[in-house]
Amino acid sequence: MPQKSLLNPTAASLLGFLHHGERTGWELAEVVEQSIGQFWNLTRSQVYRELRTLEELGYVDAGQEGARARRPYAINESGRRAFSEWISREPAPELIRFPLLLTMFFGDSLPRERLDRFLRAHRVRHESRLEEYRNLADGFGASQDFVALTARFGLFYEEAVMRWFDSLPSFAGDAGPRADKQKKKRSATKT
Amino acid sequence: MPQKSLLNPTAASLLGFLHHGERTGWELAEVVEQSIGQFWNLTRSQVYRELRTLEELGYVDAGQEGARARRPYAINESGRRAFSEWISREPAPELIRFPLLLTMFFGDSLPRERLDRFLRAHRVRHESRLEEYRNLADGFGASQDFVALTARFGLFYEEAVMRWFDSLPSFAGDAGPRADKQKKKRSATKT
DNA sequence: CTGGGCATGTAACTCGTTACATGATTAG
DNA sequence: CTAATCATGTAACGAGTTACATGCCCAG
Questions:
Q1: In which domain, by residue range, is B78 found?
Q2: Positions on chain D within 7 A of a protein C-beta
C-alpha cells in the first residue's frame, strides 16, 4: 500500500534529526532551533504533536519514560524509509513573514522616531546573529559538508540584512549607517 | 474600553492596504502579493476571513455586493485608529521556512544528482525574482520613500540568495557557479 | 528540607492551507 | 451559444501558537 507520504514537512524534519540517535521532544526542539532554527521555524508544541503522530504511523518507537515524563523517541527502519522518500521530493518555495518590513512599508503611518527605534532594536539582534554566523563559518573553515553549506546561507542572509540596515537613510542613533567605527573591521565574506 | 488591539498582524496589514481606497478580498490579495508578498505571505482565504472579522469589529464597512458576490470593503475612522495603534507596536522577529535549506541540510540522505536538480530549479526562480527587483530598483531610482526602501530589502535578499547558489561547490548544470556568461553583466548593487 | 525555577509535556485556540462551489466572461 | 476559463468566495481541515499543568532539581 503506497500510502502517499502523509508526512508533513515538520514531521519529516524531525525524522531527519532522529537519525543521530534517540531524542526527547525537548531535545529535538533544542537541536532544531540551534541548527537550522532560523530558517526552519517550529515550536515545541508542534514537536510533541508530530512525535505522537510519527509514533502512530509506526515511524518511531517511544522508549522508557524517564524523569518528568521525559520520553525518548527512536527512529526505526520504516521511519528511515519514509524520511528518505520525503527528502527526495521537490522542496516548496520559501515562506517569509517579516513584520519589520511591513512596518517599514507603512512607514508613513507612524512617528519617524518610533520607526527608528524599531529599526535599531532589530539591527542589534541581527548584529549578533551575524556575529554567530561568522564564528560558525570560521569554525567550518573550507569544509564543504552540507551543514557548512547550509550555515553559509545564514551568513549571507545576515550580511544582506545588515547591508540593508546600513543603506537606510540616516536612521538616527548610534547604530546608524555611517557609523564608521565598524567599517572595514571585517570585509565582506569573499565568495 | 481599551480593547487590547485584538488585531492580528494579518488583519492589521489589510487595514493598511485599505487606506488606499476600497477593495474586495480578491483585490487585496492581489495587491499584497504584488507588493510585499514575498516577505509577508498570506493566502486568499485568510484575507476573506480577516475581512469578515474586521467588519465584525467595526473597522471596515462592506459596500454593495457586485457581480459574482464581489464585495468591496472600505476602512472607516475607527479602523484607521486601530491600524495606527497597531503599526506603532514593536514588530515581531521574522519567521522563515525555507524547505530547500532543509533538503540541503540533510543532503547526505538523497542522491546528489537529485539535490542538484532541486538547486537548479530554485536558482532559476530566484534569478527571475532578482531580475524583477533590479527593475524595480531602477524604477525607484534614488527615491527614499518607504516603498522603495522596502523593495531594496528584496533586492539585497535575492542578491544574497544568488551569492549562495554561486558559492555552492560545482552543483553541476548550466546554471552552475562558474557560468561566466553572466559575470560582470551587472555589478553588485552599490550601497 | 523547602520553595522557586526550569525541564517536560498537554490542551485549547487561532491562524494558514487545500479543496471545493458558483457565477461571470470570453474565445471559438 | 456553448465550453472553457477565470474571478470570487466559502468551508473543512491541518498546522502553529499561547497558555497552562506538573513534577524534578538545586540553592539556600
A1: 9-88
A2: 7-12, 14-19, 22-25
CB contact under 8 A, A101 and B40: yes
Of the ranges A88-92, A183-187, B136-140, which one carries the lowest mean pLDDT score?
A183-187
In A, residues 57-86, which contact B (CB 8 Å cutoff)?
83-84
Count of CB atoms situated within 10 Å of the CB of B52: 15
Q: What is the predicted pLDDT for the residue at A170?
A: 65
Query: Considering only CB atoms, which chain B residues are within 8 Å of A113?
Result: none
Residue written as cell 554567530? A132
Are A80 and A131 in the same domain? Answer: no
Asked if residue B3 is part of any domain, the answer here is no
Q: Are residues A51 and A128 in the same domain?
A: no
Q: What is the CATH number of the domain that holds A51?
A: 1.10.10.10
- Choose the closest CB to B150 out of A105, A111, A163: A105
A131/A93 Cα distance (integer angstroms)? 27
Whole-number Å distance between alpha carbons of B87 and B14 = 12
Q: Strand C closer than 7 Å to the CB of B38?
A: no
Q: pTM, whole model, 2 decimals?
A: 0.87
- Are B102 and B22 in contact by the 8 Å Cβ rule? The answer is no
H-only helix segments in chain A: 9-18, 25-34, 44-56, 77-87, 99-105, 112-140, 146-167
Question: What pLDDT does B173 receive?
Answer: 45
B190 touches chain A (CB under 8 A): no
Name the least confident of A18-32, A57-71, A173-187, B40-54: A173-187
Confirm whether any atom of chain C, the nucleic acid strand, is less than 7 Å from CB of A44: yes
pLDDT band at A171 (very low <50, low <70, confident <90, very high): low
User: Which of A13, A88, A118 lies at the smallest CB-CB distance from B102?
Assistant: A13
What's the total number of domains in chain B? 2
